[in-house]
Amino acid sequence: MGNICGFLSRILTSVKVKKTYPSVTECIALHENSICLYLFLQLTEVETGIILPPEIHEHPVIRRLQTLACHLVTFFNEVQPVIKDEATDSIYYNIVKK
Question: Which end of the chain, N or C, is surrounded by fewer C-beta atoms within 10 Å?
Answer without folding.
Answer: N
